[in-house]
């Protein structure tokens, strides 16, 4: 057995179908070579995201049936609050319909124009929400994270020397908070060590800056701590999570990841005054503080999913399934970020397609090829997602990494699907010289990768 067998059995199935290459070629051209514009029914294996794509358990579906839809003070909210506090420990729990809404609330009540938010690496919506409030996101991840072949066990770590230097050189009032993303999605789904979190906490306390965690994949991060960090092998995932969050002043979370649900999230914090501001804003933009844009049935599903995700048999399978896919690709020499992260394989598009220059978006070109050749939908995390115009010369600036993420939904696909994905990628890699670059034809001012339209170059 190469990885643990599924700790669940399949109770409900959803049919999927294969399309022909000619059909997919027509669809991707019609979509402006942007996989976000494709109809989902044309996808055979959908690895676009692990957000909101989990298969819920019978226990969660049972919770949905008893969800309390009272407008205020529903029992489902109190179950939601109780479940979150049992893990995260924060004083105030504010429900939202998903993680980006929690980010928007947090930055709306903490940021003013010109403020700077340090993070290990901001992911797309976090970065966009900072920019939307006229703030500046800066990434202070360790240098090892920028080397796809480096086997550092905690490549998601923040560089504490960089953080210390930054806070020493920046006016305190310009830094409303410090954030940490666990696991570090943009660096390849890489975990953050408990020691690094403790060090960041100490630096924040020294400079009297609040410390917040983007917690959407907290359970996977805790599993890596148990597996890789000295002193945690005999600790439960719940114990590790409680320690992790004890070092923070609050967190944002998209429950669509490690909450194992299709919609939902929350903002949590200990600061009474900030929580009051957040709740008042919530009423304006999301809903009453005991439902926050969610139905009672959704609150109930989150409450149960957060308990289920702590199960070590589930986490062993979850992480093992990703490793299984990575091992097949590694044996064929396919370049990807190592070590394998918790929720996805991140193909290294720069090494996969060295003949395509950065201004022709090799990551997006590889994403297009995965769909056209095999019906697999992935997402580019590179020049299209994180490229930006230089303020001085208006030239495009590209991020150091050019990746394609294969995010595996939780409890959805079998090992046979992973075999299909690996075989398809290996075949594309053998014929990679045939893949063409792309030209950007339309882009939105923020989060352009969602709606961009492109054309293929001859």
Question: What this model shows, in words?
Answer:
The protein is built from 16 helices and 16 strands. It has about 450 residues and is α/β, with parallel strands linked by helices. The chain has two domains: about 20-50 and about 315-455, Aspartate Aminotransferase, domain 1 (Alpha-Beta Complex), CATH 3.90.1150.10; about 60-310, Type I PLP-dependent aspartate aminotransferase-like (Major domain) (Aspartate Aminotransferase, domain 2), CATH 3.40.640. The model has no long low-confidence stretch (mean pLDDT about 95).
Topology (SSEs and partners):
Elements: H1 21-30, E1 45-46, H2 58-65, H3 75-88, E2 92-96, H4 99-110, E3 116-119, H5 124-132, E4 136-139, H6 160-169, E5 178-181, H7 194-206, E6 211-214, H8 218-228, H9 237-246, E7 250-254, E8 265-269, H10 272-285, H11 296-308, H12 312-331, E9 344-348, H13 349-352, H14 362-374, E10 376-377, E11 379-381, H15 383-386, E12 388-389, E13 396-397, E14 403-407, H16 415-430, E15 438-442, E16 453-456
Parallel strand pairs: 1-10, 3-4, 5-6, 6-7
Antiparallel strand pairs: 2-8, 7-8, 9-14, 11-14, 12-13, 15-16
Helix pairs in contact: 1-14, 2-11, 3-11, 4-5, 4-10, 8-9, 12-16, 14-16
Number of separate domains: 2
CATH class of the largest domain: Alpha Beta
**Secondary-structure-derived class:** alpha/beta
**CATH T-level topology of the largest domain:** Aspartate Aminotransferase, domain 2
Percentage of residues in helical conformation: 25-40%
Spatial order of the strands forming the largest sheet: 2-8-7-6-5
CATH architecture of the largest domain: 3-Layer(aba) Sandwich
What sort of overall outline do the alpha carbons produce when their principal axes are compared?
globular
H/I helix tally: 16
Distance between the termini: 46 Å
CATH superfamily of the largest domain: Type I PLP-dependent aspartate aminotransferase-like (Major domain)
What is the number of beta strands? 16
The overall average pLDDT, rounded, is 95
User: For the report, how would you describe the main beta sheet?
Assistant: 5 strands, mixed
> Residue ranges: pLDDT <50 for 5 or more in a row?
none
Strand content: 5-15%
Radius of gyration: 21 Å
């Amino acid at each position: 057995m190469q990885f643990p067998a599924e700790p669940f059995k399949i109770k409900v199935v959803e049919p999927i179908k294969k399309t022909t290459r000619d059909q997919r070629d027509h669809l991707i051209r019609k979509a402006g070579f942007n996989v976000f514009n494709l109809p989902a029914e044309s996808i055979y294996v959908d690895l676009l995201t692990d957000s909101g794509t989990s298969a819920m358990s019978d226990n969660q579906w049972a919770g949905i049936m008893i969800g309390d839809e009272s407008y205020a003070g529903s029992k489902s909210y109190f179950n939601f609050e109780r479940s979150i506090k049992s893990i995260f420990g924060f004083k105030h729990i504010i429900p939202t319909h998903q993680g980006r809404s929690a980010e928007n609330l947090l930055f709306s009540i903490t940021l003013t124009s010109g403020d700077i938010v340090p993070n290990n690496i901001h992911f797309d919506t976090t970065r966009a929400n900072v920019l939307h409030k006229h703030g500046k996101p800066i990434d202070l991840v360790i240098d090892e994270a920028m080397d796809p072949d480096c086997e550092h066990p905690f490549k998601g770590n923040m560089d504490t020397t960089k953080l210390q230097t930054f806070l020493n050189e920046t006016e305190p009032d310009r830094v409303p908070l410090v954030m940490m993303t666990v696991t570090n999605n943009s660096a390849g789904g890489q975990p953050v060590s408990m020691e690094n979190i403790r060090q960041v906490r100490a630096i924040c306390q020294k400079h009297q800056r609040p410390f917040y965690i983007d917690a959407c994949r907290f359970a996977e991060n805790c599993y890596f701590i148990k597996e890789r960090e000295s002193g945690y092998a005999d600790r439960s995932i719940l114990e590790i999570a409680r320690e992790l969050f004890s070092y923070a002043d609050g967190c944002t979370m998209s429950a669509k990841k490690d909450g194992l649900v299709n919609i939902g999230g929350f903002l949590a914090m200990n600061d009474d005054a900030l929580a009051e501001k957040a709740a008042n804003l919530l009423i304006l933009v999301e809903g009453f503080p005991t439902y926050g844009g969610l139905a009672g049935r959704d609150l109930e599903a989150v409450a149960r999913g957060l308990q289920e995700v702590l199960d070590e048999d589930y986490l062993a399978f979850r992480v093992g399934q990703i490793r299984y896919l990575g091992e097949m690709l590694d044996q064929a020499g396919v370049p990807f970020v190592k070590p394998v992260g918790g929720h996805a394989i991140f193909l290294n598009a720069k090494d996969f397609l060295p003949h395509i220059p950065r201004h022709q978006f090799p990551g997006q070109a590889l994403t297009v090829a995965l769909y056209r050749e095999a019906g697999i939908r992935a997402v580019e995390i590179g020049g299209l997602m994180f490229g930006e115009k230089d303020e001085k010369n208006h030239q495009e600036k590209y991020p150091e990494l050019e990746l394609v993420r294969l995010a595996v939904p939780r409890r959805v696909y079998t090992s046979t699907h992973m075999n299909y994905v690996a075989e398809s990628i290996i075949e594309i890699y053998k014929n990679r010289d045939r893949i063409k670059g792309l030209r950007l034809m339309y882009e939105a001012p923020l989060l352009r990768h969602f709606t961009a339209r492109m054309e293929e170059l001859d």
